[in-house]
Amino acid sequence: MEIKKDKDSRWFDVELVPESYIFSPTDRPQNLDVAICDSIPVIDLAKHIQPIESILKASQEFGFFQVINHGVPEKIMSDAMSVLKEFFHMPSKEATGYVPHNKGWIYTNNDCTKDGVHIWRENLKHLCHPLDKCTKLWPNKPTRYQEVIAAYLLEINKLSFRILEMICEGLGLEPGYLSDTSEVQILSSNFYPSCPDPSLTLGILAHQDTSLITLVYQGDSTGLQFLKDGQWINVGSIPNSFVVNIGNQLEIVSNGKLRSIDHRVVTSKDKTRISIATFVNPSYDCIIEPAKALVNKNEPSRYKASRYKEYVDRNKAFGDYTVALRDVVISES
Ligand code: OGA
Ligand code: NI
Fold it and tell me: From which residue to which does the signal peptide run (predicted)?
């Protein structure tokens, strides 16, 4: 049967996975039906018994946890999700590749890995700090994008710093040690369309985040997996929760006490996924090294000091274009 392609058909409107999206057998997701992990810690931030201990334990054992009763209004979360859904469903976005950096945001629907294999996703990325300077540099279609996402990021700021302060206290560091030089720096939203054969493709390859912490809002979708004892485990979906994971910078500052863990996204045959990841990063000029209070004779420093900007530059996965976006924000100020 002939497949009819109209002018609005998209790259994922296919019955077979195109060759350029097929990963080699060693990179492919095996075992797609691993049970949803029922032990990923779910932390209720409204509980009066201090959740700090649970956050620390989860960050040591898994590098991942979910938070509920976190104080972010549901409406702000669902509005953000729906405006991004609208963005990704707009029939013609400006380009099929990277939108020029001078706009202050990047959209792509065809990025590929270093082996040249395409990943099964579209991505929109922009800077978020300082929020009042960045907002006007974001997409203005849909027309309510800037307003809705700015409201979302105000809440994400509050929640992210609250979590960082809890981690700080749990590690025995002085208040502000993690927050004072940090910012909710980048928003990266992913759209993973349904895929004819999820066993051949990946939405995002295994990676670690270069952040301090990352918050992911995934609506009611699944697909995010993390590595635990050599096995890929599904992060379940809990309504109105955020997934929090520890990034490389916090692993360094904690001198290895907290762990930045490999994670990836697998695709689904019948469901789409939209995720909103926000990266809480050190400001670019900050020097990151193990906290002095956590280094002693028995526990010598395990990581070299590095300026965050240089760390990002070395780690091209995110570094190359987010630093270029930063130059747009600076030139606007
Ligand atoms: C990331 C990431 C997960 C997701 O952007 O670093 O891991 O669900 N995202 O999109
Ligand atoms: Ni990640």
Answer: none
Reduced 3-state DSSP string for 132-187:
HHHHHHCCCCCCCHHHHHHHHHHHHHHHHHHHHHHHHHHHCCCCCCCCCCEEEEEE
**Residue of 308, 322, 258, 311 whose CA lies nearest to 123:** 322
CA of 207 to the centre of ligand 2 (A): 6
Show the tokens assigned to 157.
Answer: 């700021």
Does residue 296 belong to any structural domain of this protein? yes
- Whether 333 is in a domain gets the answer no
CA of 277 to the centre of ligand 2 (A): 8
Mutate to test the pocket of ligand 1, among 120, 126, 204 (most ligand atoms within 8 A of CB): 204
The residue whose C-alpha atom lies closest to atom 10 belonging to ligand 1 is: 275
Mean pLDDT of 109-135: 89
Distance from Cα 6 to the centre of ligand 1, integer Å: 31
Report pLDDT digits (tens) over 274-305.
999 999 999 999 999 999 999 999 999 999 99
Total tally of structural domains belonging to the chain: 1
Pocket of ligand 1 (CB under 6 A): 188, 190, 204, 209, 216, 218, 224, 263, 265, 275, 277
Residue nearest to atom 2 of ligand 1 (CA): 277
What is the pLDDT of the chain when averaged over all its residues?
Answer: 88
Residue 6 covered by a domain: no
Nearest CA to ligand 1 atom 4: 275
Residue 240 in tokens: 């109105």
Calculate the alpha carbon distances from 245 to 31, 44, 205, 231 in Å: 23, 16, 16, 17
For CA atoms 137, 143, 145, 146, give the dihedral sign: positive
Say which range, 33-42, 224-233, 238-247, has the weakest mean pLDDT.
Answer: 33-42
Global pTM value: 0.93
Residue 258: domain span = 20-326
Q: What is the largest CA-CA distance in the chain?
A: 72
Instruction: Please report, for the domain that includes residue 108, its CATH number.
Output: 2.60.120.330
d(CA 155, CA 249): 23
